[in-house]
Batch of 3 targets.
Target 1
Amino acid sequence: MIFELRNLFLTRVAVALLVTASLPASGRDPFWAPASVVGLCGFGMTTMLAGLAIASNGPHWGVANAAVFPMAMAFGGTAQFVAGLIMLRRGEIFSGSAFLGFGAFWWAFTFLASGLLAASLGPTGPYDLMWFMIVWGMFAFSFAINAHYHGTAILFVFWSLVVAFVLLAVDFGLVGAGRSPASGLWEATGIVTFLSGAGAWYAATGALTAAHHGGKIVFPFTGSHVGRSHGEERLGRPVLAATSPEPSLAPPREAPRVG
């Protein structure tokens, strides 16, 4: 089972690399739209499900990991990873790095939290998950401090994501110390996680809608406030408009309940 999943992942990555290698260096191939909407939705929708699963460690909500892991592998992991490859090929360092990184996050988290590797690497402990959340929180922080270039929605996505990672690290740290986190803390963590994902979905919807209104920003807070940064196209612009740079682009995700 483990080897089948690994081979599936490597095969999809290889196909994505072959496809994106055909893109022109300018990134302006008319047959290739920006992958922003797919990347944002892959991150956002998976993160929303994960947030509900985290909150379900409390007495309410009732969402299990079984709803999260398939979504994490297919949409949050594979689709977002491919979106990242496309955006990097187009020269977009912020969005491409975020999508690629958080696409990898979802695969790594699924293997770590689902127990798929337990037979070969041993069971995953609470402190393993705590440090996993800490290092990914650092990754999210790197994007958060630069997110103001890409609009208010993306700024919200990344800073709420940093908070979610901090809360997750606290939750699993308490479990590792033998102290059960209060149900209210689990629910608060899940809600913050859900809101981060909802923000990414909102940014994606705003970008897709703007592309169908001639580049006009229809959804508030989805436009970019700052011009080009270090040669990168603005991310707050409509995704599919013929002459506009692309929309806000976010990453990912959060981790569901474990154990």
Target 2
Amino acid sequence: MILRTEGIVIERREWSEASQLLTLFTATHGRLHAIAKGARRPKSRHGGGVDLLDRVQALFYPRPGGLNLLAETSVLPGFRGLRARLDRLLAGLGVAEALRDGTRDEEPAPEVYALAAETLGRLGESDRPGVELAAFESRFLAAVGLAPRLDACASCGGEAPEGEPVGFSADSGGVVCRACAAESGAALRTLRPAARALLRSLAAGTPAARVRPDAASLRQARAALTDLLRTLGERPSRPGDRFARWIEQSPARG
């Protein structure tokens, strides 16, 4: 049985002179790991190979629990301008990283796919890609059930005073009051009022184009969001490690 899906390339590893190992985040099948044999040959059914952040139409043979076989891929229009500026590209790679580390294999999440595709499309035209990335991360965390608590202490539910810096704990899931911060004994991030307000605005769904944070507040907000993303699971020690066991079991390269 052969299946068709649309996806975004979120991880790529060259395998032999002609083939590629790919991770796609797809509209209908969630995260998929696949091999595109002979992808980099000019006359292959993969158009000479695909790149990170390409949006593709893919035909594949499913192998549940294993490495899917890509029969054909074609790059679709979209995400123009993403590679025109380094800051846009880096933000796009941040989207790919969240999808790679924060989703599960073969678990459909069409709303997350739509969010990622919309964000990458906007990044291609954005003059403030860092804000676009923060908006994506906030909505992504909400979609996977990890939206930070910002109105009260995430540990005890008590008051976390407004108008002054507060601690932020990814392990607790949001801001923490002074008592809980002292009791934990851990080194916590500090959120200025403006950074907390930015996180609250993003959580409310305010479009990135309407958000005008100062640089320090954006850095603090993004650091807090990144900490939360890291709680979704351990990251691979190096790109492509997830493919290792399949490579060992695969026939000769080609």
Target 3
Amino acid sequence: MMISGKNVGRKEHASPGGILEGLILPFSIIALWFFVSHAQLVSRSIFPYPEDVVFAFRQEAVSGVFWENLTISIGRVLKGFAIGASTGFVIGTLLGMSKIMDRLFTPVFNAVRQVPLPAWAPLLVLISIGETSRVLFIAIGACYPVVLNTCEGIRSVRTEYYEVGRVFRFNRFQRFFKIVLPSSFPSVLTGLRLSLSISWMAVVAAEIFMTSNGGIGDMMWSSRDTSRMDLVILCVITIAVVGFVMNRTMKKLELVFSFWRITLKQSRKAEA
């Protein structure tokens, strides 16, 4: 018994009711913020009104400062993500396909990934002062989830698929591109989604803890030094919104490229 892709796709899309439920908490927080600020329970200089933040956004957006800083941060994220994700994919593939590489490098990798990401900042500053150190900082954070998910995806490839490859006499490259990569791709996509989220968080840390010329993190820290709490809150909201959009976009891509796997799982459940 097969289940049509149409039915599966319907289950994967959020219902209007689910979307409305997801908006309850954000709107409740905004309402509480409006009440607390206007009740003057906290000083306006420390806890600005929502309209102060809206005015600050309008002012910074019109001047172009906001968009310039946002563009700088996104550019750093894309560079670090590209380097970290590609490096992580190669390492994860080697660890997943070679038992020798797994025995040699997995203990070292597991030890290195226990080092908190901010701990790399002083070392990277010594190696390179400037944009390179910030991009490498992001790349380190982006690398780990791709390594783990790629390795796990390759190890979870079913033995029957390899047997089919032997029947068709696939060489090593054919086996990788026709069996291993398609089978492990959903897991790799999950790693890429996590990697992009970590990259976005890492860029803010890099711009705050490492000397930075521009970026949302730098804008937030500079605003804090000048007691512009409206801009600080604007930066926090921007970080949250952009991170949410990135995560949702990657989830959509993950769903599109993994659609065949969802259909297969549903079919097996129906047959059982």
